[in-house]
Amino acid sequence: MSTPETAPAAAPTTGGYQLQGTLLEACTCDVLCPCWIGEDPDGGTCQSIMAYHLDSGTINGVDVSGLTLATVVFIPGNVLAGNWTQAVFVDDRATPEQEQALLAAFGGALGGPLGDLAQLVGERVAIARAPISHEIEEGKGTIRIGDDVAVAEMEPYRGPDGSVTTLNNSIFSTVPGSPAWVGRSSRFAVKLPEHGWTFEVEGRNAIQSDWAIDYRGNGA
Q1: Contact 92/131 with Cβ under 8 angstroms?
Q2: Do 183 and 157 touch, CB atoms closer than 8 A?
Q3: What are φ and ψ of residue 81, in 5° steps?
Q4: pLDDT of the residue at 14
Q5: Euclidean distance between CA atoms 99 and 69, whole angstroms
Q6: Which listed residue, 98, 105, 111, 151, has the most CB atoms within 10 A of its CB?
């Protein structure tokens, strides 16, 4: 892993990104995570994993289709107050050019919706390449980073007609502009003792989404 660093503020550039894929997210809050509606997290803090798989997409013209970027995050209080601590994991199949493109977009350097989200990060304690498994089968999602860095297994809630329970127009979202599916994790575990993050929980909040962002740069 790289040396710790303070997350840079988003800087406007002429670059943009067009991305489409799936999100798998789990956290230590009860269902539904209060962070999504701007309330303080259960227990006062929230630890989460967010994994973005890109079915298709380009960043500044670089094709990043088929890759996954995941983060493990500690949120010390209200989600909107920021000051998150974050460890970033880049798909080990990415080329150096693809890795830099992913870090630029999701790290906030290109601005846009991902830049707004990245501004909530106060400190990025690690950036590492790792094998990332991101699977969805019959609605159930599984995310795994490395052999035992992090794992989450989840399934969305469903309504009487079988459709997934959907969250729209929340004050906070990790998939800006796209609906999120409310779910529950059967298991969520993180093993990052070097950052004081070692835990395993069951039956906590989970979020899934089919998401898309089309940001053309320069405020577009």
Answers
A1: yes
A2: yes
A3: -80, -10
A4: 54
A5: 9
A6: 105
In this structure, the strands spanning 121-130 and 132-137 are unpaired
Tens-digit pLDDT profile for residues 64-104: 999 999 999 999 999 999 999 999 999 999 999 999 999 99
Given the DSSP bridges, would you call strands 84-91 and 121-130 parallel, antiparallel or unpaired?
A: parallel
What does pTM read for this prediction?
Answer: 0.91
Q: What is the pLDDT of residues 1-45, one digit of tens each?
A: 444 444 444 444 457 999 999 999 999 999 999 999 999 999 999
Bridge partners (DSSP) of residue 183 are: 156, 206
Cα angle value 10/13/15 (rounded, 5°) = 110
Residue 220 pLDDT > 70: no
8 Å CB contact between 17 and 109: no
pLDDT at 217: 84
Q: Which of 150, 185, 157 is nearest to 30 (CA)?
A: 185
**C-alpha separations of 3 from 72, 87, 92, 143, 149 in Å:** 16, 11, 18, 25, 18
User: With helix as H, strand as E and coil as C, how does the chain read?
Assistant: CCCCECCCCCCCCCCCEEEEEEEEEEECCCCCCHHHHCCCCHHHCEEEEEEEEEEEEEECCEECCCCEEEEEEEECCCHHHCCEEEEEEEECCCCHHHHHHHHHHHCCCCCHHHHHHHCCEEEEEEEEEECEEEEEECCEEEEEECCCCEEEEEEECECCCCCECEECCCCCCCCCCCCEEEEEEEEEEEEEHHHCEEEEECCEEEEEEEEEEEECCCCC
